[in-house]
Records
---
Amino acid sequence: MKIILVEDDERLGKLIKEYLIHESEVFDIVKTGVNIAQQLEEKKYDILILDVMLPDKNGIDICRELRKNNVNISILFITALNNQIDKIKAFESGADDYLTKPFDFQELLVRIKALVRRENNIESPKLIWQNLIMMPEEKKVVYQNQSLHLTPTEFKILQIFLETPNKVFNTENIIDKLWDIDTIPTNNTLRSHIKSLRKKLEQVGLDKEFIETVYGMGYRLKTPSITNQPTLENNSQTENKIISHKEEKLTLFMEEIWLDNQESVSNDCQTLLDYIQGKKDDISIDDIIRIPHNFVGFLGSIGFSYAGEIARNIEAFLKENKNNLKEEKVQLKITNLIYDLQKSLFPEAKLIFKKNNQLIGINYKVNILVIDEDQKLADELIFFIENPNIDLNFAYTINTAIKYINDYEYDLVILETQWKNQEDRQNLILDLLSQKQDKTKIIIYSKNDDLENRLYCSKYPINAFLSKNNSLEILWQNIENVLGKNNDNSQITSLYDILIIDDDIRFTEVLKQKLILNQLPVNINIISDSETFLDEIKKIKPHLIILDLEMPKLNGLDICKIIKKDPFLQSIPVLFLTGNLAEDVITKFIEAGADDFISKSKIDVELYPRIITHLNRYKKS
């Protein structure tokens, strides 16, 4: 294969060449496409890899001119621009394929080979995984001599996994690759297609989790266990080992590239900051925008996916605010994003923003997005949260919320789940936020407090679920807890003692580990013999007691009654954790004087904020 790459980012160009050089007899890189037609005439290439955003002439115009002049070469766009309009422009200009940065290098190679085969009329090779054989040209899938009858969408989804079998795809990745399907599915319909595909694969004898779910990340092909498999699977495993070896070499090269380019990346961050502060008048805004644009592809491709997303947000924000970059709010927003980028890449770095010759640290700035059609709540929150470090943003419609989540980064999102005539779209918000769970916390604050809604939301990585029957004070306590601002005076600043009384040792150990992982400011004490509880209470002097209902010697209701009748103990909050929340049981809890009760099935959603709430109340009493 003879490949020519037009890419102005030297760092990413080296990375692409390193991966493809062994697959090609010729690989040339140029930084501008101004004279590309002449180069294609002088030298025969099989494929042109073209960036969209180039310094002198953009890739769309270059592609359009080449097609106008009847230049017959396969053209693959690689770009950080990932919206539908840009894709349409690319294909209308004459592109053969389109790949969004950052991309998987194995997928890049597959796309290139497919285009070259198409151009040279070479038969497409079979795709094999665990004795499952796909023949893309024939639109045929066979497993152990059984043909699978798949819809076009199911076939394309399976092909996506088989072409890059070691990659995890989120729903957005898959939808992006279904471009040539007549009807592009939504997240919900995509999940339905995958469910149907799994069922058809299972019917012919494959594992029902042949396409497995990777929680919080997406889907991938399930790696087969290493046994004496038939020849086809052994061949597949051999190919996978070759791919893995190649990936290991690429990883090492990525590490070297990063070490070689840390200084240049740091300098580019400083250039961005200097421009925002008015110190770089000799650079055009287009050149400034190109810095984060190039970061998206380079950083994302070497494993800094979070940093790549921040760079994408910086690029988008600069484009949107070209004409008002001197506004203080705009400057502060971009500076915050640059700080986040630096912090992600260089954890020890500190970023300070100058204003009126005063140094203002932005280390503790918190961005919160409130998604709620109730504008009254917005007014109440603005009045209630009088903290200059809290940047409150509001989205009153689902469409606005989706745009904000796609375009900006937030430390916390507060979400209402009951919308007039938009219930079928609210899951889009949760799907988007699930992809950002490593950097964005989620609190549900909803009018819809029924069990079905709580169960639905608990399937997503939310941090707390609160009914709007709770006051703003309770909401604020949960905000503080979720964001972990333990340096704030209004929060718990020392360790508190919790006593757990439960005879199920396995459950209490799991509960202890969950409390530790959630970094609650507590010392955890556990007793399994309920008859010794009084001695333990006097010794530990707990600030909160968590009780099980059913225990062999002395049940939780009796313990609670004893505590609440003792004038020296009755102020200690008592919280029941139980698997039985029948109406008559709840009545017994109330009669015994319990302060709270939670189902054991909901501890991940409800327990931690409830603990903080009770400890705060106990502290004030």
---
Amino acid sequence: MRFAFASSATLAFAVGLVSPAAAQPAEIASASADASADRSAPSAAGDFEERLVLDTGRAPLPPPDPDRTTFSLQGEYQLRYRAMTDLRLRAPPLSDPGATTLGQHQYIAHWLRLSPRLHLADKASIVAQIDVVRGLIAGDTTRHVEQVRDARAELSWYEVHPRHLYLEVPSSVGVFRVGQQGAHWGMGLLVNDGERATLFGDPERGSLMERVLFAATPMGRSGPLLVTVAADLVFEDSAADLLGNDVEGQDEGEGDRALQAVISALWRARRGEIGAYGALRRQTRERRAKTSLAQFTETLTAAVLDVAGKFDAPVPGGGAHVYGELEAAAIFGSTSFVPSGPTPPSGPGAQRAPVAVRSIGGAATLGAVHVAGRGPRPADRFGRVVTEIEAGYASGDDDPRDGVARRFTFDPSHNVGLLLFDHVLAWKTARAATIAERELFAASPEPGIRWLPSKGGVFGAAYVNPRMLVRPARWLDLKAGAVIAETTADLVDPYGPGRAGGGLSTYDGGDRRRHDLGVELDIGVDARIAMGRLVTIQLGTEAGAFFPGGAFDDAAGAELPDQYLLTLKLGVIH
């Protein structure tokens, strides 16, 4: 039996009103086709590799041995210290009118993730993953934002989160998987496994599916076409929680029952790939009033169509590559998971008629990398200078009561900067949902409150995100980026102070017609220090400054103060 240590991460995906999941094309391809068809596998000298752009120092997964049973254990421990400006938020008017900020200035958090794999020769594999400990170790806790998962509202360093446990069986016609697993598609706007490195920030915990999946290459083992079909019961993602543990105060049994069917097709070539993805999702959750017998069912029925692709090409003369990727998605259907939708005739707490879902979003990245280093192996090369720009769009909803849900939300693990989306808007939407749940609808639950928090995902906004990375040495990254954004529709809080009078305002109570979100500047340093063949130490720091636009002015016209954030990072990966 052989033992190996490397590293791994997690899975995550969320999308406004629906969180479908697809197969991980690269991973399935490596099991169902020759390694040469897998663009994530080691390439020949001179070819483009994704590690030239972002290098985490993680070792590749050990392949199965065709002649014997092997076992590998990959793991990583990550520790974060974060200090930030105390963010201004709308105060709960009844329970704590003095709580005008988030209440958090600094904290220390960590997670330990283990990923064992048992390969029964090349006949089958058992794959598992668990966060043995995860949570807030020390520091300030947040207040009145508990309507989101991972609210950091209490110190709890010892949480345990089982993540994966599935059986994978390859065959001459494809790969079969069954068990609890996750997925990734395209740039990760809708379906994100949380394992892809991002220039700034950390991936979220991710999503888990009870899944049956089959992936095949109809044109032969090394053919360009990969087709995947899957059937899921969602265990946990940012849009559903089977056990009902996603927000504070949920009664036992108030969990989601989310079923979905997924199909995707991916055409792969040496210099790029393009594919289409479709999903149908049906989700329900039973809700009960706390002071009466009134109850109703929140429902969602939606279809998703997503197109994604990427390419790379050498620059004439050698020594550099250009690359790019894009993803565009549309969601159609109906739902009663809508904040402040049309009020039913029988009053709050009764069954609400579904509204239409019509939302779209997408993003594209274009970049170039100058390659340094020489040697016979691809690993001898590294990206010396990386420049890229990402632009994205997510539709917004300026009137939650008009019978059409238009808000599109990116997966939280698709990080865009450090502050605007991951911090400022994430906590403002969480505070709005918490006030609504605890005070406005304490006696009779309002449909869709859980769907209001963005959880750090881009929503209702268009942005430009230029980024640059310089490596003076293979192990050292110097990075910088900027985010310039504005809303794609009026930014409104469905439960804001003007709601009772029929008016809508922003999350700060200001003029909803102000669309300028502001400008963010980010810098950072990352280092990877190899300690022999088994261990790599990761050291780093990231800092961001956010200069808010008029969309964050309050009712009196006062501007939101500039926001600052500093992160110190320590990681140990095997």
---
Amino acid sequence: MQTEFDHLAALAGKGRISRRDFLGRAAALGASAALATTLAGKAFAASPVKGGIIKAGLQGGESTNSLDPALNLSQVTYNFCKQWGEFLVRLTPEGGVENLIAEEIGASADAKIWTMKIRDGIEFHNGKTVTAEDVVATLERHADEKSKSGALGILKNIKTIKADGKDVVVTLGDADADFPYLMADYHLVIQPNGGKDNPNAGISAGPYKVAVNQPGVKHGGERFANYWRGDKAGHADQIEIVVINDPTARLAALQGGQVHLINRVEPKVVDLVKRMPGVSIENVAGRGYYPFNMFCDTAPFDNNDLRMALKLAMDREEMLDKILRGYGSVGNDFPINEAYPLFSADIEQRKFDPEKAAAAYKKSGHSGPILLRTSDVAFPGAVDAAQLYQQSCAKAGIKIEIKREPGDGYWSEVWNKQPFSLSYWGGRPTQGQMYSTGYLSTADWNDTRFKRPEFDKMLYTARAELDQAKRKAIYRDMAMLMRDEGGLIVPFFNQFVDAANTKKLSGWVKNPNGEMMDGYALCECWLNA
């Protein structure tokens, strides 16, 4: 219960909840009138403090990183773009959509035509005013088949985009009631002329202007004086992200005071971190998962008997216990869990079965070792996870050969390039968006090469279906198809486990949409006076 009160206090301190609403929600949580009043007094006294430099030590940075938001791939670019970039909308911790550059969003009765009214008076870092034409150009660039944008998969349903005064009108091929959620995708940073002139310029309308950009080393920003939400974000004078891919070095930097925040705390050291003076573990369950990806179109993984053997050879319970130390939940070989409203809880949980795995492996006709690639940067404990999987596969007579890849270059040279490797996904707000981004046949980020026309058809049908019960049934069929014939092994869904020096820093709000407060920690937290 204290966690709920802490969450309320953080919302109050950031001005995102009224005193009246605070009192009402505190009472609903069981607080007496006197206690609720006391809590409100403390919470609303914790208002943001301006000034100083907030520093984060983050895993997930490479020398090949770009400021082009279309190419946002790993944690450092994901977090940094939330500092300098501004979006049409953002996701709320409660699972809704908050309007940003888009002041209003409305749809036609059939959910095929969406109109977004662009807010007046928002300024880009270069002094230009954000217009409907900039938004149109941004969406056009990311929807271009040649863009290589990570958002390409979710934009393929767009038929036309046009500016009409202050409005942006988007016409879809098929109805999609989830369209506003798609606009929160972290690749869709609104840029002058959509970034068509220079996508790598790092210019948008976010709380910080890019001041330092050393890929794989360090990124920094200086507060943008004309940021339109300056009372709610951009509290520090400067923010800095130091790339620290090694988990031990990252923890040492936090403990030594070199940084205020770190991401990806390994579950095996959480208890140690909890004993550090002034340091708080900030963990929250969400939609993220740590998969083992097999290319369905590449031998030997083009054989479904072999894929099934490798799925049945996964001891999920042991993996959850030894790798995540309970900071997660078991997966079932499709990318959806109970965090999604239309999740089907009646799908049978796949279990470790070495005998059935051995039979499927024999049926596949394959022999010899199978190469699995992993790296420390794939996810916390990824090397240990590969070794544990190697042991469970051995019980089924399957030999796994592990290749440990360097962190720098893993996301550009191994993920989505090699046929069997470990990875991570942060999840997406809706099932339709998750499937469109990673498992639609034409998606640029289809990292299992799962390409099935019948699956695509079901996805299009589900997006257009406004009856939630019917949509849920379609999503169930899609999950079963992926679970039994796809190239995805999902041993577990993870919690996001970050750590913060709460003696020096305030304003943290738990957000299940992504690590580091869905990427907004640096710009929405503040240094204590």
